[in-house]
Predict the 3D structure of the following.
Amino acid sequence: MSDFPTLRLASPLPPIMHGTLGEFVDDPIHVMRQMWASHGEVAALQDDNHRIHFVFGPQYNHEVLGDTRKFHAQFFAVRGPRKSAQRRVTSGLLSMNGDQHREHRRTVQAPFQKKAVQAYHDQVIGVTQDQLASWNPGETKDIAEEMTHYMLRLTSSLLFGMDIPEMAYEVGRLTERWVDLNHQVGPAVFSADPALLANYEELLQAADELEQAVLEMVRMRRGGQLGMDVLSLLIRAHDMQGGVSDEQLVGHIVLLFGAAHLTSAHTLTWTLFLLAQHPGVMSQLHAEFQEKLDGQAPTAEQVDQLPFLDAVLRESMRVLPASAYSIRVAAETCELGPFKLNPGNPVIFSQFITHHMPHLFPQPEKFLPDRWGAISPSPYAYLPFGAGARMCIGAALAMMQFKISLPTMLGKFKLSMAPEAEVRARVMSTMLYPASSVPMRIERQDGHFTSQPVSGNIHTLVDLPPSTVAIRRAA
Ligand code: HEM
């Protein structure tokens, strides 16, 4: 398929591509594919005023992610004025480095350890069943919107507790709006487009409202009973260890919500979409659910006893990783391949490009869950949750959620794409979003699967098999 560059050309010239950084903001995957195809594993994109370095593949991912002294995280493009709410709500783990990062990470990750995560099992089932109560056989739903709403409810209830759902949901909603404004304003750092800066004041205002809402939540929890939600656990940990202000707690909570909600929603949407387009895989998964679960939601023990579901999720996060790339900045003068970096120079690593390298994953554009029976890539070759000292602290929670949501949804309902759907994807900030609706027809689960053809730029990211409906028509 000509859209997929699989060869990279040896070039005697310095691995620098000249272009505008705006082009990268508009279509990061296209630009990164071009850079990897023409320059290989380390390259730079240069315009009149800026240069960004890129690394692709396990060797350089390791070099950049494995050295937290040389390469710092600087996730939020817009930190806001020094004493602003924007500065405080962006002060979570992804803005910390060195000893401060290590100390705070130890506290923040405690509620997300594998053992702690098992305690959320019943809550995940409860929220999933609530969501499914509004699904009726025969209707068509935009699954991208459904999964975003579902994860908004689930994330707010896990982070803030079930006893104050309205307030928890409101914080979730305010976070969602604030994240969206960050996505709009962030690219202004790379671009001279004044339209992008137009939302700056709105972003500062949204940060202010979000901070107030989270502080109110913290006050309420402190004033009443602490529960088993993540916020209560963090308040307890902070109170016991001392020295962490409510403002810092706000930074952690906002980051946790922002990091958890949309990444999980998009992963679920992409997985349901890939399953709908691969009836053979869906059929295999259905057989596993029938054999192991008999139509019930998985128990806490069964969650880890579904090997084919595990392979489906791994493969979905390989082909369409919710985090398509991420950023570091050089913290000191250092070398990166042929480049000499100065402090502050940005470096991008990309899950998407690494996951699509044919020498690591043969036929990389195909969704082939069975490949996971035969491969065991290194943590720097397969990194949907990042790698190294900043690897996602929510990975175990996210996987547990998916391994409950998918069997619960697909045990009851059969999902297939609505006829003539156009499915588009787009990377905004660092995330691979569904940029269109993903309309799916909902039917009672009967174990018979076919697929519908779809149009849209999704075909430039994943090589979908011919739809079974089309095959039948042609026959
Ligand atoms: C499918 C779902 C998820 C994906 C794909 C994902 C992806 C990632 C990635 C790639 C990173 C590393 C970023 C970097 O190195 O620059 C990261 C970090 C992080 N994630 Fe997740 N994440 C997911 C779910 C969650 C959940 C459920 C939570 C928490 C409730 C969470 C909290 C965090 C935090 C706090 C960090 C920063 C860690 C640090 O800097 O030490 N994520 N995530």
The first strand starts at residue 16 and ends at 18. The chain is about 50% helix and 10% strand.
